[in-house]
Amino acid sequence: MHSTQTRFRHAVLSAGAAAFALLATGCWNASAGAQTGGCRDAGDWSGRAQAAWLRAAVAFHGTTDGADPSYAQASVVVRGPRTGDVRVLCQPLAVQVEFWTLTASTTRPELSFVMRYGLSADGGRTRTVAFPAGLPTGRDGTCVRILVAAYAGTPLAGAELPRLTGDLATAGDADVRFGTARIGVHRLLPAQGSTQCGVRRSTPSPSPTASTGWDIYHP
Q1: What is the DSSP string of 116-174?
Q2: How does residue 71 score in pLDDT terms, banded at 50, 70 and 90?
Q3: Which of the pair, 190 or 116, is modelled with greater confidence?
């Protein structure tokens, strides 16, 4: 009988010690977690969730009216934390900032790749990507516009690339469609050579008044 009570008492004490150990471990882990700064775990985020985070973090600078023909001061900024903001991630996201040109043609606008810049972002510091040098401005008589997008993950595959659903001369951001939900933000910049993209760009010039004879190539 005494042996049975001893074993029972020993089992209770062992269980209590185990429970205390688990409680202590849990409290230590909670304390360790608090010391990480309250970062957000994005390990299981979908592409759509990553895009939503980018949408709040990305800003375009120097692209309002396209007045600078070289876009020398333009940039894409992935901002760091702001006062009261809790966007900082425990692990950074792989982010792509990609540039294209859209050039008017006789059928549909031609999309051409310009540059893609890969970076990692967690909201802990600000990252800035300058626009590439030598972007076309339409000064040569063509209607050309610049498209830039920031998205999470790997570079876009063929079916994910952008397409324009409206007329290049009047299209806005809403007229650009991507074949994926992981695009955080995109911007179709205004044409710098606006006269080349205008509705009346094909209006013929009046005939010179100084000449009264037939052109030698007139039928």
Answers
A1: EEEEEE-SSS-EEEEPPTT---STTS--EEEEEEEEESSPPPGGGS-EE-S-TTT--GG
A2: confident
A3: 116
| 3-21 pLDDT per residue, tens | 555 554 555 445 555 444 4
Which amino acid belongs to residue 71?
Answer: Y
CA distance 130 to 177: 24
- How far apart CA 115 and CA 157 sit, in angstroms, is 15
Write phi, then psi, for 2 (nearest 5 degrees).
-60, -40
Whole-model pTM? 0.70
Q: Which amino acid is at 180?
A: T
In this prediction, residue 37 carries a pLDDT of 56
Other beta carbons within 10 angstroms of residue 99's beta carbon come to: 21
Question: CA triplet 92, 95, 97: central angle to 5 degrees?
Answer: 155
Q: How many whole angstroms separate alpha carbon 73 and alpha carbon 179? A: 30
> Could you tell me which residues come within 8 angstroms of residue 60 by beta carbon, excluding any fewer than 6 positions away?
74, 75, 76, 77, 148, 187
Among residues 55, 75, 53, the alpha carbon closest in space to that of 63 is found at 75
Q: Which two tokens stand for residue 164?
A: 């324009």
Please state, in angstroms and rounded to a whole number, the distance separating the CA atoms of residues 185 and 110: 21
